[in-house]
Design a protein that fits this description.
Chain lengths: 130, 185
């Protein structure tokens, strides 16, 4: 594990969810809200198209945080996010962040998930025990 | 999410307001009265209220399904021996699997007339989890929900719920804080 210091950038996580990702996330999570899986329904309620589950994107933020600990799930002690924008399938999501503080083995990182200029998750703070 | 068979379009962070029928305010008279005196228009009676626990048994294949969707490939999510070799009791759930076992407890809280939330104008504004003992395949997780706070700021209502999930041994697995924002209260 590389030494982490405040201000250091963490490795970017880039994921492009395919067209059917929201269907699989719906099955995995139990959230079958039609705005995620039915483009016609989504358009009928004024959305440009079906949109990603916000909690799926939070899942990617959590993945990015555990990656810092070599992928060990128990390293992630806390994660707090704000949902700020709609995510679209078939568009690359980039999770990026910086180290906010370190204290012994505890590292706090500040993360953003974005599709281009659209920041779907902001102020995502993760506490990781390394 | 939020219970078996429940369809709750408002749960999405950005579900459009008109997705749901606007529910009738259970206490329309009270609400008008509070408007007249320019007090807060959100009901705060439910602050501190707790709802009955829900239980969820964590399954190995369900963990694998969730991990695959998120793109996680650590064998501890799929293979019992790998999980045990890494120090887990059994195949372990990714941290954000907390949504899967915790959310059934939140549904009844949000639908409670005492909370009186206008679902039609609601968005999921924020989410926090703190994790304790890892959730593993075979665990029976019991989650309770509590209303931590209801407040109003700049014409928006902020509804904050807490979920507390413990396993069959009484160990805390995850504490969640769910921030739901209702526009135009």
């Amino acid at each position: 594990m590389a030494d982490l210091n405040p201000g250091d950038a963490i490795a970017e996580l880039k994921v492009t969810p395919d067209k059917y990702l929201p269907h699989r996330y719906a099955g995995a999570s139990g959230d079958f809200n039609p705005i995620h899986i039915d483009p016609e329904f989504a358009k009928a309620v004024g959305l440009p198209n079906s949109i990603l589950h916000g909690l799926y994107m939070m899942g990617l933020v959590a993945r990015s945080a555990t990656d810092l600990a070599g992928g060990d799930p128990k390293a992630l002690k806390r994660l707090s996010v704000q949902f700020r924008g709609m995510g679209a399938p078939e568009t690359e999501i980039v999770v990026s962040g910086t180290v906010k503080s370190t204290d012994g083995g505890t590292v706090v990182i500040d993360t953003v998930a974005a599709q281009g200029e659209n920041q779907t998750i902001r102020n995502a703070e993760a506490e990781i025990q390394l | 999410m939020f219970g078996k068979g429940a369809r709750l379009p408002f749960l999405d962070p950005l579900a459009p307001c008109h997705l749901r029928e606007k529910p009738d305010w259970p206490d329309d008279q009270d609400r008008r009265a509070s408007l007249d005196c320019r007090a807060m228009t959100v009901k705060t009676d439910a602050i501190g209220k707790e709802w009955p626990a829900t239980t969820y048994e964590v399954g190995k294949e369900k963990i694998g399904e969730y991990a695959t969707v998120i793109g996680l490939d650590n064998p501890v999510y799929f293979d019992r021996e790998a999980a045990k070799a890494a120090g887990y009791r059994d195949v372990v759930a990714p941290p954000m699997f907390a949504v899967v076992y915790s959310s059934p407890a939140v549904g009844p809280a949000m639908f409670d007339p005492d909370v009186g939330m206008n679902f039609a104008a609601m968005v999921h504004g924020g989410q926090e989890f703190e994790w304790g003992e890892p959730a593993c395949s075979g665990d029976e997780i019991t989650t309770t929900a509590k209303c931590l706070d209801i407040s109003e700021k700049d014409g928006k209502g902020f509804y904050i719920f807490e979920t507390n999930a413990v396993n069959q041994n009484g160990d805390q697995v995850a504490r969640g804080t769910w921030t739901l924002i209702v526009r135009g209260v």
